[in-house]
Amino acid sequence: QSIIAIVPAAGGGQRMNMSLPKQYIKIGQATILEHTLHKLLSLPLISRIIVVISPDDHFFTTLAIASNPRISFTHGGSTRAQSVLAGLTLVNDDSWALVHDAARPCVTHADIKKLVDAVIQANCGGILATKVTDTIKQSSHQSNIDFPTIIKTCDREYLWAAATPQMFKAKLLKESMLKAKEDGVSLTDEASAIEYCHGQPLLVECQRDNIKVTRPEDLPLATLYLQEQGY
Ligand code: CTP
Ligand code: MG
């Protein structure tokens, strides 16, 4: 069964607050996006990788990796979901789509393989995720006021933090995302579109080093993890 990776890389990286989008920040010898693409390229099972870039991105095509025969690119939209949908239009309905954030360069080969094996074995879509280790409180108000109060402690036994890759049959993912879009439901990952359409994706536990580089303080952490992995 063919697996096509979609890498949303069309974000502006507002929270990183740097002069260039975070996927183009260098860690060691390579940019964050290149580290991410090398991880995906290390799995021969992934036959193609579609990188979704911003229409004003003039940097991607200057990277040597852009000419890799397994890599192509297309233009994304103003939300992550729109960018993923743009990539999905290039994927055959009967392929598996494996969506992985450009901003998660520290994912390991072993964890990607673990997800792919679990999903193919169960013939059901799934995502990488970590068990929540903090004690999670629900607040009485939205968190934008100064000192909201606690109304309850959530039962951690059932809580997971979603990561990527997230892997689904392309047709199911496309239809679920379009349905959510039509109904005005905003999505922060692929699984939530499937859940919205009453699917139950698998949770596949990954290592905690699969962080999303989001804020400046994530950079030293990503650098350390990549160094530990030998990059
Ligand atoms: N992304 C995308 N298209 C968008 C927005 C985000 O392809 N319109 C991608 C980002 O490039 C990133 C991934 O989705 O690889 C996860 O999004 P996020 O971490 O939020 O990245 P940014 O949107 O770039 O950052 P910020 O929200 O801080 O601006
Ligand atoms: Mg964003």
From TrEMBL:
<feature type="site" description="Transition state stabilizer">
    <location>
        <position position="15"/>
    </location>
</feature>
<dbReference type="GO" id="GO:0050518">
    <property type="term" value="F:2-C-methyl-D-erythritol 4-phosphate cytidylyltransferase activity"/>
</dbReference>
<dbReference type="InterPro" id="IPR034683">
    <property type="entry name" value="IspD/TarI"/>
</dbReference>
<feature type="site" description="Positions MEP for the nucleophilic attack">
    <location>
        <position position="212"/>
    </location>
</feature>
<keyword id="KW-0808">Transferase</keyword>
<feature type="site" description="Transition state stabilizer">
    <location>
        <position position="22"/>
    </location>
</feature>
<protein>
    <recommendedName>
        <fullName>2-C-methyl-D-erythritol 4-phosphate cytidylyltransferase</fullName>
        <ecNumber>2.7.7.60</ecNumber>
    </recommendedName>
</protein>
<dbReference type="Pfam" id="PF01128">
    <property type="entry name" value="IspD"/>
</dbReference>
<comment type="pathway">
    <text>Isoprenoid biosynthesis; isopentenyl diphosphate biosynthesis via DXP pathway; isopentenyl diphosphate from 1-deoxy-D-xylulose 5-phosphate: step 2/6.</text>
</comment>
<comment type="function">
    <text>Catalyzes the formation of 4-diphosphocytidyl-2-C-methyl-D-erythritol from CTP and 2-C-methyl-D-erythritol 4-phosphate (MEP).</text>
</comment>
<keyword id="KW-0548">Nucleotidyltransferase</keyword>
<dbReference type="InterPro" id="IPR050088">
    <property type="entry name" value="IspD/TarI_cytidylyltransf_bact"/>
</dbReference>
<dbReference type="InterPro" id="IPR029044">
    <property type="entry name" value="Nucleotide-diphossugar_trans"/>
</dbReference>
<feature type="site" description="Positions MEP for the nucleophilic attack">
    <location>
        <position position="156"/>
    </location>
</feature>
<keyword id="KW-0414">Isoprene biosynthesis</keyword>
<comment type="similarity">
    <text>Belongs to the IspD/TarI cytidylyltransferase family. IspD subfamily.</text>
</comment>
<dbReference type="GO" id="GO:0019288">
    <property type="term" value="P:isopentenyl diphosphate biosynthetic process, methylerythritol 4-phosphate pathway"/>
</dbReference>
<dbReference type="InterPro" id="IPR001228">
    <property type="entry name" value="IspD"/>
</dbReference>
